[in-house]
Amino acid sequence: MGWGNIYKRRMKVFTVAVIIYLDYKTLQQRERWSSKSKRAALWEKTHERNAKRLLSLIVELEGLWVKMGQYLSTRADVLPQAYIVLLKQLQDSLPPRPVKEVCRTIQKELGKSVADLFSEFVETPLATASIAQVHRATLNDGRSVVVKVQHEGIKTVILEDLKNAKSIVDWIAWAEPQYDFNPMIDEWCKEAPKELDFNHEAENTRTVSKNLNYKDKRDGAAPGNAVDVLIPEVIQSSEKCLVLEYMDGIRLNDKESLDAFGVDKQKLLEEITRAYAHQIYVDGFFNGDPHPGNFLVSKEPPHRPILLDFGLTKRVSTSMKQGLAKMFLACCEGDHVALLSAFAEMGLRLRVDLPEQAMEVTNVFFRASTPASQALETIKSISDQRAKNMKVVQEKMKLNKKEASHFNPVDAFPGDAVIFMRVLNLLRGLSSIMDAHIVYLDMMRPFAESVLQGTINRGPTTNAEWIHDTPVLSDVEAKLRQLLIKLGHDDKILGIQVCAYKDGKVIIDTAAGMLGKYDPRPVQPDSLFPVFSATKGITAGLVHSLVDSGKLKLEENVATIWPVFGANGKDNIKVHHVLNHTSGLHNALANIMTENPLILCEWDECLHRMAMSVPETEPGQQQLYHYLSFGWLCGGIIEHASGMKLQEVLEEKLIHPLNIEGELYIGVPPGVESRLATLTVDMEDLKSLSNIGSRPDLPSSFQPENLSKVVTALPMLFNSLNIRRAIIPAANGHCSARALARYYATLAAGGIVPPPPAASSISLGSHPHIPKFPTAKKPKKKISQIREVLFLKSLTRRTDQNGSSNDSTDSSGKHSDTSKDDLETTTRADRIFSDPKVLDAFLGVGDYSNMVIPNGKFGLGFRRFDSEDGSIGSFGHSGMGGSTGFCDNKHNFAIAVTLNKMSLGGVTRSIIELVCSELNIPVPEEYSKRDEIGPGVQTPIIN
């Protein structure tokens, strides 16, 4: 092809591209002045006009443009019908090349004449495509074959067409930046030339055939992952000639023959989808060109798909394959963190932090196929969703209308994912043409899961690094790690952290397992776990801190602090009623979970609903667990009493004084996604819920018989970043066990902050805490040795068992050697509560006993636990599924457990029993095995 022809070819391409572009731009302007009734007709005529232009150009130029037309003809799910009807003609054979040219190529490539190679050669081709045409023949040994022969000079044409296509895409990206298809065309330019070497195609065919194992379909295949397809055997190949086994089949676009043979098109497309899922996820080696011309259907039952043409075949790395699998499974689970993690592994970078929109777009990509008749609705739905997403981006980035129209939210797109996307789009288009409904999230899931089997099922037996490599701090920690290994072997643990303090020193700091079911990254000491209602213990501490600083009184009416709260008969509810779960608002906000759980993300709306709620019982009369309303009640009190946002109070009162920056949040900020653990459910434990009777201490909407549905739905809801980022002060705390344990170690000591723990590879408090508030003042750093001395001396001034406070005198009445300056420093910087009776307040004993229900399970904001001797020995709070934190102030002991495999609390119970028994600390009744109901069924930790 001379330069003159190249120039003419290029000019034709650009001329038609410009004409079509200007035609649609003109229509957009014209549409503004047309009535709604005429707009549909205008668009239809424009589609028909431009489809004819495009078809005419493709037929004239052939080459690569035929492949593009074939691709477009399969997109019945999104393209206007006018394009589909006309471009479908390209799925049939193009005008054949002269047989002399074909024979000349065969002899040159295979070294023998057609007569010498074949006993019979049919001169009329079976099909003529953009790169080659196929003839049927018979080998001298009697085997029926097909001979695929490349067109002369096609290599030059294809390479020139790729340059032209690249130029057009560059031009479109310049004119309409939001439609930048450069990543796709760049990958196509890299992969398409490989189709010109039939030796490459022959090897690809052999590889896919071996991978799919179609001749021995069941041997060694994972249950449910075997596929039932046929692939022709390769007989001989050269660069421009390929001889394959002949397989008699029906073309996919021959609907009359498919119906005549009784082919189940739904089942056929499901098997094709499964075959591609196997290639993509299991093998990492897949055919990138699944258009209708590359399939046949066997005429004999069970009418298997016959896969053809492996010229455009893509191999992806193991890491990319895992990234693609994680991206798919993240969509299945609605897991924003896993999705962003998958993007990072794949090399896909976004310019804006909008995980919700990223999930929506990805879900559109993996959406189920729809019939061709619904193409217009699908186009409109996708267009509306895109407009909605771009509006959010515009607001987030503070862009004007013009800037928004030119903004591309994708910063980098991995080339390896382009062919993958093309395959999914082609398969969806194929299903639409065949009127098959394929739910890709269901069909492909087993194959995507199989990619991660080598990592997601790696427990302690096969993974030497299952327990994070940190020093063993005590004998009890060594025994604990052995218990964790046993529980890991029994598949009771996915990821876990355990941290414990004794007498102000860390004696356990262990992390083990992985961050999520589909996230094999190891749990580290600074990983952040969702702890559900363990958050309540944090929120209660903030209320007490405001009481301690004089901004609030426990006997005060909530309506005095929060005036609007007094509506609907709530003017007599006091702060201590809220903390003791006796306000009568135990079921308030319960309908949110059925109405629309995303309302939980709206702080002001939830506070308003809380203020407008109606109590079900008289204040102080009945203790019923306020499972969701507790947080909003406390949140409203905290903000109105302090005049600050809840997160600001959290920073000032707890985060900075305890030096736990970056490891305790109520509502996570952007920037910590890589450290978030992902929730899943222990399904075996879930079955046991049916054996548990009613709990009189729980409200009607939170009884065990209703929990199965709740627990099943919670992981997907609370794995989503919009929920994780919301301020839900009863439920969505995210923390490490070492941060939660440090908090309770401080409470156990009456508010005295323990000395800093020994430095590890990831020091506590080393993360920048985001967001930072100007009102939050970080305490000055002190030398750890001085702080430890001050801590030990401060213990002598702790509250005694009767609630009285020891002063700074010794038994002889003389002052201790602690200086006045030391005392002031300790009071001011080393304790978060100044009231010597604050422990009594937590427990609801002594002077505070009149504020709680006698013998109730709750003190003022904390779950109090009975010791074996019947006395109240410890307090804390657990979360749905097992995460917990509690302390024993009599033994100056605190422990926290965070986990991501939600169960009925058996794992947590085993851990606390072991640790307490080893330290000779009474085991709280809540965690005693004597609290079993029926054989092997334990009371769930459903707080």
Describe what you observe in this structure:
With 943 residues, the protein is an alpha+beta fold. 44% of the residues lie in helices and 12% in strands. It has 36 helices and 25 strands. The strands form seven sheets. Strands 16-15-14-24-23-22-21 form a seven-stranded antiparallel β-sheet, with helices on both faces. Strands 1, 2, 3, 4, 5 and 6 form a six-stranded antiparallel β-sheet that branches. It is elongated, with a radius of gyration of 34 Å. The C terminus is likely disordered.
Write the layout of secondary structure elements.
Blueprint: H1 3-31, H2 36-61, H3 64-73, H4 81-87, H5 99-110, H6 114-117, E1 118-121, E2 127-128, E3 132-139, E4 144-150, H7 154-175, H8 182-191, H9 198-212, E5 234-237, E6 241-245, E7 249-251, H10 255-260, H11 265-283, E8 285-287, E9 295-298, E10 305-307, E11 313-315, H12 318-333, H13 336-346, E12 349-350, H14 355-365, H15 375-397, H16 401-405, E13 410-412, H17 415-433, H18 440-443, H19 445-451, H20 453-456, H21 475-489, E14 495-502, E15 505-516, E16 519-522, E17 529-530, H22 535-548, H23 558-561, H24 575-579, H25 592-595, H26 603-612, H27 629-642, H28 646-658, E18 664-666, E19 680-681, H29 683-687, H30 704-719, H31 721-724, E20 733-735, H32 737-748, H33 784-795, H34 820-829, H35 838-843, E21 863-866, E22 872-878, E23 884-888, E24 893-899, E25 901-902, H36 906-918
Parallel strand pairs: 19-25
Antiparallel strand pairs: 1-3, 2-3, 3-4, 4-6, 5-6, 7-9, 8-11, 9-10, 12-13, 14-15, 14-24, 15-16, 17-20, 18-20, 21-22, 22-23, 23-24
Protein name: ABC1 family protein
Biased composition (Low complexity): 763-774, 801-811
Region (Disordered): 763-782, 797-823
